[in-house]
Amino acid sequence: MSGVRxxxxxxxxxxxxxxxxxxxxxxxxxxxxxxxxxxxxxxxPGAGLIGLLGGADRVILVDAMQSHGRPGRLARFDEEDWPRxxxxxxxxxxxxxxxxxxxxxxxxxxxxxxxxxxxxxAAHPGAAPGPExxxxxxxxxxxxxxxxxx
Amino acid sequence: MSEQRRSVAIxxxxxxxxxxxxxxxxRIDNGEIVQLRxxxxxxxxFFEKFLEGRSYTEIPDMVARICGICPVAYQATxxxxxxxxxxxxxxxxxxxxxxxxxxxEWIQSHSLHIHLLAAPDFFGCSSVIELARIAPEEVxxxxxxxxxxxxxxxxxxxxxxxxxGIRVGGFHGAPSVERIGDIREKLRAALPEAEALIRWAxxxxxxxxDQAFVCVAMRHPLDYAIxxxxxxxxxxxxxxxxxxxxxxxxxxxAHSTALFSSYRQQPYLVGPLARLNLNHARLPARIxxxxxxxxxxxxxxxxxxxxxxxxxxxxxxxxEALRLLDGYRVPDSPWVPVTPRAGVAxxxxxxxxxxxxxxxxxxxxxCVVSARIVPPTSxxxxxxxxxxxxxxxxxxxxxxxxALRLHCEKVIRNYDPCISCATHFLRMTVERT
Lengths: 150, 433
Prior knowledge:
Chain A is α/β, with parallel strands linked by helices. Chain A is about 30% helix and about 25% strand. In chain A, helix 1 (about 20-30) links the parallel strand 1 and strand 2.
């Protein structure tokens, strides 16, 4: 058993910190990282995400999303929801879904993978995340904690 | 059909699998190329203005932001130029670790380019995801090698993207003996993987091509030049960084925000194949033997050998990092004190994509009066256009639009253009009249 890995993905640009805020909320809520529960913030890992998916039984990924919806809206994506990727990849545009799709081709997905998105509005470098994003991050952290029996 | 063949215009609006965004416009009238322009949109030279008035202490961190793929190149080049101006003698430890740090960047950047960007072309795949279906072990190996390069950068730079390790005078900190011991194990374990990568790369069928071009790369009397050396060319030129301006010219072209460089009024090549062509005699014997076994004849005039050149340089970088980390000790201080002074100095290093040249004019307080940065992609831009022109004629201008576009992209990707240092995707528009 190599446990659970919670990965919050983001960047220091305004609402794009959503994934990091979930990690902050989990830790603030008393969740203890350790041998069997790894909790990490990632800054735009690109293809490097693939290596972080291995060796865990369950991986929970949280990232910001933009789908013209209400900022703060939560979504969970199952594998069949992943858009098909195959064209247009560059290392600059190698995002989470591209990494997951490549990992799937390489047989590198964990047996249990949960992908959450938080709808965001603005992602300006150096800006603070909006209050609705912070509230959504706390809400999602509670959902994740509950799913882990916390 | 014959009418179509005589008059063609192709615009590639989006070139995928390159670092950044650009476009290609191609117009063919009566069976002749009448327009071929690689357009680059991004204006990276604003960085030079950002640097004005900034202290020398800030420069390495600022220039690292120019590129997320090759930040070490920018840091190391800026530091080298400023150290030269300030009369700073790096400690042997710092000199060696600059090269190790740089090796990390070569390893990650080259592995990324080979596997994610270039290799799919040679297997009829549109992306690495398709490539992974037919060559999963090779893609896995590539990702492992890339991750190791990132880890090496992270070790000295605290992070692999926009690292913050280098300061003028050395490094901000020194990794512990334990962490170095750990990475040495990984580097050693990667050697056979990199050797296998070379054999795989050499076995990839590439188009036959034979073009005449001048290669420009740094040269060092002992080492395969990476972070220090003079500038050499395949026509015998040998100059110091300070003389670069006397031999190489930059000019604006209306269709591109990157400058075009020329040498004796001609395009020239920088990058892995230029380096390998000029410096293969400096490779360690073991790598020379491996390369000889592949049958590659050097110097090569086929740009499609660039992928193999990158594979060779990955193995070289692993060897160099291991050699320089042998007997590693934490120094008393990872940096030496620096006293700024007014003046002008230039520096150059070999970024993964080729020669990177910086020039700084500094005031007595150590603040930038003016800066110039010449990235490899702008040096290669005229060569890419020249190559495209020749390659398309060889390929056949009467090929279907899609085939022409794919061939153009394949040619461009040989150069691993970092369009963020000089553009993003290639947008190619095709017109047939």
